[in-house]
Task: structure prediction
Amino acid sequence: MFEGVVLLVLLVLAGYLVMKLTLAILKWLAINTITGLILVGILNFLGITHIELNLINFLIIAVGGVVGVFILIILSFL
Result:
């Protein structure tokens, strides 16, 4: 009986930690994505470069943020 209660408490604790880490990672990705998309929008609007927003480029921007945008800029000039 006591082992079952301990197991339940540990499972709830593990679930809480997984949810907290998942939300932290999603928040980080959202901030990177928004920052990168704003930068791409400004650069496309000013005519400095033309970066298409397809799935691959969107994933690069989401993970890389500003660094991902600069990678796409370099690749667009090649």
User: Anything to note?
Assistant: The chain has three helices and no strands.
